[in-house]
């Protein structure tokens, strides 16, 4: 036993005798190149005259407990960090939604929808222990509110291409983009009343370092489309999302066709 540890134990023994209260000493020892954590508990045993008659010392190997505690602390730090990021996103969405709406009713309607989009993605990320979410699961979750089934074969909404795990940050922002595209389609496009058409959603390899997300919407029965120049949804699609995922985007809404392409660096994929 090394002198610093011996001295620490001697001090604890002396204090246990003096005050009559249990003392705890934590220490580590190396064995075959591996560090082990121990906990020594020192109890003073007394007789009726209140004079110490002896000591009880127990030493426990608490390596596994300490490892679990370290993992829990790391997890809590990660949760705190991600919670702050999510709150920052929510705050930004609230401010920008308010800036681009004229009435409190319109603000509440749009903000609730965007908040639900973030919440749906957050549920997927949390269920994966913060690893991210499958691309197909993300698309299905975001389009579930439209009431149209997402299918792998031709239909109103067809999902094609790769199905990798998308990292948490990219998943949150891509989910927000999907929400804006789906909402716009319900209001003015292929999923809206009085219109028909089809939507193809895909994720494909653009090159060795990039993936490309594509939303391609064909619309029948629509001759006009509201201007997108000052809408927050357009800002999300063209600026917020690509900047947040270190990518680039193009958005071309036309009366009978909508095409959105988002380039995503491969390192944004989850593990």
Automatic annotation (TrEMBL):
Keyword terms of this UniProt record: ATP-binding, Kinase, Nucleotide-binding, Phosphoprotein, Transferase
Domain Signal transduction histidine kinase HWE region: from-to ranges: 78-163
Domain of life: Bacteria
Pfam families to which the protein is assigned, alphabetical: HWE_HK
Enzyme class of the recorded protein, top EC level: transferase
A molecular function GO annotation: protein histidine kinase activity
Enzyme Commission no: 2.7.13.3
Catalytic activity: ATP + protein L-histidine = ADP + protein N-phospho-L-histidine
Coiled coil ranges: none
Annotated Gene3D superfamilies: Histidine kinase-like ATPase, C-terminal domain
PANTHER family: HISTIDINE KINASE (PTHR41523:SF7), TWO-COMPONENT SYSTEM SENSOR PROTEIN (PTHR41523)
Annotated protein name in UniProt: histidine kinase
Species the sequence originates in: Devosia pacifica
Upper taxonomic lineage: Bacteria, Pseudomonadati, Pseudomonadota, Alphaproteobacteria, Hyphomicrobiales
């Amino acid at each position: 036993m090394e002198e610093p540890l011996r001295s620490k134990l001697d001090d604890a023994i002396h204090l246990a005798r003096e005050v009559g209260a249990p003392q705890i000493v934590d220490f580590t020892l190396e064995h075959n190149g591996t560090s082990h954590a121990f906990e020594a508990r020192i109890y003073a045993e007394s007789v009726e005259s209140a004079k110490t008659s002896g000591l009880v010392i127990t030493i426990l190997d608490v390596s596994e407990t300490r490892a679990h505690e370290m993992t829990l602390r790391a997890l809590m730090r990660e949760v705190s960090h991600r919670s702050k990021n999510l709150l920052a996103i929510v705050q930004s969405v609230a401010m920008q939604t308010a800036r681009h709406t004229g009435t409190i009713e319109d603000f509440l309607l749009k903000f609730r929808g965007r908040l639900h989009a973030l919440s749906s993605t957050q549920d997927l990320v949390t269920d994966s222990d913060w690893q991210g979410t499958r691309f197909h699961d993300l698309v299905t979750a975001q389009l579930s509110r439209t009431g149209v089934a997402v299918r792998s074969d031709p239909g109103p909404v067809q999902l094609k291409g790769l199905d990798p795990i998308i990292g948490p940050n990219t998943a949150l922002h891509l989910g927000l983009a999907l929400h804006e595209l789906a909402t716009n389609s319900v209001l003015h496009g292929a999923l809206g009343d009085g219109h028909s058409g089809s939507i193809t959603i895909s994720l494909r390899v653009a090159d060795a370092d990039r993936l490309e997300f594509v939303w391609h919407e064909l619309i029948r029965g629509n001759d006009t489309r509201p201007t997108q120049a000052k809408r927050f949804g357009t800002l999300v699609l063209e600026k917020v999302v690509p900047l947040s995922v270190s990518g680039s985007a193009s958005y071309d809404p036309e009366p009978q066709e909508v095409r959105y392409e988002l380039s995503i660096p491969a390192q944004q994929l989850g593990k």
